[in-house]
Amino acid sequence: MKRIVSTAMSIALCALLICPAQAADEQTELELAAGYLLQQGIMTGDQNGDLNLEAGLSRVELAVLLTRLSGGAEEVTVNAVSFERECSFMDVPAWAKRYVGYCVRNSLVTGYDSLRYGAAEPVVPAAACTVILRACGHKDSEGAAWNYSTACSYAISLGWLSEPAAHAAATTRGDMALLLYRALTGAQPANLPPASQAAGDGCLANGKPVTEENVLELLRQLEQDWPQDTVWGTHKTPGTHKNEVASTAANRIMDVYWVSEYYGCSGYAAMISSLIFGDTANPGRQLEDLSQIRPGDIVFIIDNSTGKVGHVRVAVESPNEIHAFHYTDGNHGGIIHWPDREYLYGRENLDCYRGENRACRLEVWTRYPESVPYTGNSVNAWPTGCGA
What we know:
By secondary structure, the chain is an alpha+beta fold. The chain folds into two domains: 2-198, no CATH class; 212-366. The protein has helices at residues 2-18, 21-26, 29-40, 59-69, 73-78, 80-86, 97-105, 125-135, 151-158, 163-166, 173-185, 195-198, 212-225, 248-257, 264-277, and strands at residues 285-286, 298-303, 309-315, 324-325, 327-330, 336-337, 348-349, 360-366. A hairpin with a 5-residue loop joins strand 5 and strand 6 (336-337). The longest helix has 17 residues, at 2-18. The chain is elongated, with a radius of gyration of 25 Å.
C-alpha cells in the first residue's frame, strides 16, 4: 500500500509540471483528465489510442487500471506466470489473468467467490470509489470514515466524484478518468462549488450558508435517510448501524466527554452533526444561553452526581415559550427516534434540568459560527400532528 500511495503522490507532483494553467481554460475537465492519464500510462486506449470514454468499464479493465496505477505494469510483464497463478477465477480471459492476479496479491480486488471474478460485468460507482480510495491510502476498516456503502458519499466529500456519477447505474471509462484525475491532482468536479466554499466555515455540508432554515432542510432530509426505528445500537447489537461519516469536528466535541463518535447515541449525534455542518468546517463551541438552542445543536445530558454523560441528543428546533423543544436521538432502546408527529408531549424541557437538587443538567454544543446570530425562527419548527 505504501508503494501505491508513493506512486500516486509522484504522479500528482508530475501533473503540476505537465498541465499548464492556460490549458484549464482551453480544455474541458474530461479532456484534461484523458490527456493526463494518457501521459502517465494509466489509460492507453485501443489500438488507435482511443480511450472510448463513453463506453462502460468492466471489472477486468478495472484490474488493468489498478495495476498501472500502483506501478505494477512492468512487474506483471516480467513475472507474468507468477501472477497468472494468483488468478484462480475461471471467467477471466487469458490475457488479463496477470493483471487480476497482481491485484489479488496486492489486495486491490476480490472476486464474488473463489472461481468467479465477474470479469465482464460493469463496475458500479461504489466499487470504483472503493478501489480508488484504497489505492490512495484511505483505508476502510473498523472505525474508518467510510465503507463500501458510503464510498460514493465519501468520495464526493473529498471532491473526487460528482453527484450524477455517484447515482449512475454503472461507471463509464470517462467517469473513471475523472475520478482518477481528481484523486491524483486535487482537481474539483466542475459542478461543485469551490472547495473553500463547500467545506469552509459558514457553509453547510451541501454548500449552502449556515442558517436555521437550511439546517432544518437537511434535518428533514436526514429523517428520510435515517427513519424512525432504524436499528442504532452498539457493536454488540446485531444488525446495528454506526457512524461511518468523516466527523473530525464532531469528534472533538465527543472527546470532551470521552464518548464514542462511532457507536451509541453519541455516534448517532456525531453523524447527524457531520452530515449537516461538514467534517472539519464549523468547529463546535459550548452554548452559554440554552434558550438559544438551534436545530442541529448537540445536547448532552450530564449526571450531576457523577459528571458522566447519560444520553446525547440533537435538537431539531429552538425552545418555545414554555422552554420545550423537539429532538432526535439514536440508541434509546437500540433504535433511532424522531419527533412523533401524532404525540403532543414528546419535547424536552429546559426547566427539568435547571435549579437546585436536579439529578441531571444539560450541556449544549453548537456548530453555528458566532457570526450567525440566533433568530428564534426555529421555535416550534418541527410541528406535530396535534398542532404543537
